[in-house]
Amino acid sequence: MVDIVEMPHDDVLTGLRVATDGEAMRELLAPYFGGGMQLVQVKLGRFTYKPGRNARFAYRLKLLDRDREVATRHVVHGRMEPLADAAQLHKKMSRRTWATPAYGPPLLYFGELGLVLWGFPNDPKLPGVEMIAGPGGLLALVPRIPALARLAPVRCESGLVKYVPGKRLVMRHKLTAADGRRHLVYSKTYAHDNGGAILGVMRHLWEHGKTDPMALTCPQPLAYLDDARTMVLGALPGTAAVAELQGEDARAAMEQTGRGLASVHASGVRGLEPWGEAHEFENLLKATETLQRYDAELAPAIARIRALAQAGLATPDSTSPVPIHGAFRFTQLLTYRGRLALIDFDGFRSGHAACDAGSFIAHLYYLHAKDELSLEAAQAAAAAFAAAYRSVRPEGLPEPALRWYAAAILVSKHAQKCVKRLKDDGDVKIAHMLERAERWLSGAESPV
Fold first, then answer.
1. For 169-196, how does the pLDDT look when each residue is reduced to its tens digit (9 = 90+)?
2. Which CA distances in Å does 129 have to 48, 55, 115, 125, 386?
3. Which of 43, 311, 321, 409 has its CA 20 to 30 A from that of 56?
4. CATH 3.40.30.10 fits 238-442, yes or no
C-alpha cells in the first residue's frame, strides 16, 4: 500500500490531493457501486507521479454485498492528466468497447480532477487481461496448453497476485480435475509482445537448472499464448531471497547470483528486442528532467552527471550483445530448495551484460540509501557478485561499462523513484544517490 506523508502542490495536476485521499475517493466512487453493494473502503495501492505531467493510480476497493452479507474486493486504476488532455483521453476511451466488471462501471471520468479510471479487468494497454481474468479465464485456454490439457480440469479458482496497470498482471490459478487431482499454476500477462522470446530464455534456465545445481532456476514454463500475451508457468514455492543479504550466507548467495546471471547471458537465446547504451542514456535524461522539475536546486549536480554519462557513451566497447533481464535485482529471486530461482521475466532484451550487473549493483546501493543495508554490506555484496560473474564470463563486465550502467540506473530507476512514488526523506536519498553516481561516472570510485 502507498502511504504518502506529504503531497506536494502541483499547479497542473490540481486534483492530486483528492486522488491520493482514500476517503475522498470513496465518496466520489460510492454512487457508482449500487445495486445492494456498499463501498466500504478505498486504499491507494499503486501510485506514480511525474510533476506537472501526469500521475497514475491503482485503488483497492473493499465492498460489502448487503444482500448476501459478503465482503469482496475490486480494483480500479487510472491516469491523471492536465484537464484538457484528460478530456481528450476520456473521449478516445469512450469510443472503445469494454468488458463489464464484476462490480461498478468499466470506465469513469472525473473532469474536475482530470482523472480517467478503468474497472478491472479493463486495461487499455493490457488487452490480454480480459481474456485471462474474465469468466472462464484460464479454464477456457487449457486445451492449448498440453501439460494442463492432460489434467483435464473441470474447475478453476483464480486470484490476483500482482497487478501493475498498463504493464503486467500476475494471477494464481488452482485447477481441479474430475477425480479431485489439483494443480497450481501462475499466469503473467504482458503489455509487450515479446513473450515468445522470453519463453526461450526461461526454457534454457529450466533445462540448465536441472543439471547444474549452481545455476539459477525458474518456474517451469508451460506455454506462451500470443493472443493473450500471457505466459503460463508452473508453481515454484519459495521464500524471498533478499533476506539472505543480512545473514551469514550473503556471500554464497551473491556468488550464486553472479554465476547464475553469467549463465543466463551465455544462453545464446535470440529474437529479443535490442537495448543499448543509447536507450539507457535516454532514460537517464528523462529521469533527470523529472528530478529537476521536482527540485531546481539539483540542476548543477544533474548537469555534471549528464555530461559525464554522455562522455561515457563514446567509450569503445566490443562486447557482444547477450540476453539481458533488463531490471535484474535480488528482490526478484526466491530461495528454493537451497538454491536461487529467478521469478521475474518481464523485460528480457538483447544488450550489454553490464546492464544487468549494473542494475543489480545499483539496487544494492539503493538499499543502502534507504538504510536497509550498511555501506560495508552493499560493497561486499557487489564485489562478491561481480567476482563470481567474472569467474564464468571474464569478458562480460569491463569496468568502464559496469560503472556507467550502475550509475545511470542508480539515477534513472532509484533516484527518480523517490519522486515518482514520493518516498519518505526522498530529498536526502536523491542527493545521496546523485553524489554516488557522479563518483562512479568520473572514475573516482568503483561500484565493486
1. 999 999 999 999 999 999 999 998 888 8
2. 21, 22, 22, 9, 38
3. 409
4. no
